[in-house]
Every structure is written in C-alpha cells, then in structure tokens.
Amino acid sequence: MSKNTLLDIKRSLEPHIGSKIMLRANGGRRKTIERTGVLEEIYPSVFIVKLDQEQNAFKRVSYSYADILTESVEVMLCNEQGQVRIDYLQH
C-alpha cells in the first residue's frame, strides 16, 4: 500500500470538511451499513464524521483512509437537499 495513495485520498477529502456526506460501509456477513453525516475532522491516519442524530445511536464514527482504498467504505457527497450526488470520493 503506497503512502502517496493514502495521502491522495486524504487530500481529496480535505476540501469537503463541513460538507454533508453519505457513508456506505461493509458491516460484515453481506451486510452494508449506510450512514449520513458531516465530515467533521481530518487527521493524518483517520477522518471523523459527525452522524445525523435522528438516524444513529451514536454521535461520531471514524474511518481510516485505507478503508477507502480497500473499498470497505465508500464516501459520497450530498447536495443541500441531502440527496446523494453522483461523484464518489474514492481513489
């Protein structure tokens, strides 16, 4: 796994801090979990998403950039109405 690739993923997320996103994560055993929230913070190894309170039992989740690289997590931008836009934030 190239460090530059992970850095590229991090850089592609940085302009979207504060934007509403939808996460589609692998929940194991053929289960997919979809969550919406706001991209809150970015750190060297992980990013944090503040989840919508009415849909989720907990407030925040964090994922690593390697999760995006290995496609265990998909990150999609949402528009102002909360609808998912077509472009994916994937490598």
Overview of the structural elements:
- This protein has two helices and six strands, in the order αββββαββ.
- The protein has helices spanning 3-13, 65-69; strands at 20-28, 31-42, 46-51, 60-64, 73-78, 84-88.
- The protein has a six-stranded antiparallel β-sheet with strand order 4-3-2-1-5-6.
- The protein is globular and about 35 Å long.
- The two termini are 13 Å apart.
- The model has no long low-confidence stretch (mean pLDDT 84).
Task: Break the fold down into its secondary structure elements and pairings.
Layout: H1 3-13, E1 20-28, E2 31-42, E3 46-51, E4 60-64, H2 65-69, E5 73-78, E6 84-88
Antiparallel strand pairs: 1-2, 1-5, 2-3, 3-4, 5-6
Structural class: alpha+beta
Q: From the alpha carbons, calculate the radius of gyration and give it in angstroms.
A: 13 Å
Q: Tell me the overall shape.
A: globular
Stretches where pLDDT is under 50 for at least 5 consecutive residues are none
Q: Major sheet: order of its strands?
A: 4-3-2-1-5-6
As a percent range, the share of strand residues is over 45%
The chain-level mean pLDDT equals 84
Order of helical and strand elements = HEEEEHEE
Fraction of residues in H or I helices: 10-25%
- Number of helical elements: 2
Q: Count every beta strand, where a strand is a DSSP E run of 2 or more residues.
A: 6
Ends: how far apart? 13 Å
Main sheet characteristics? 6 strands, antiparallel
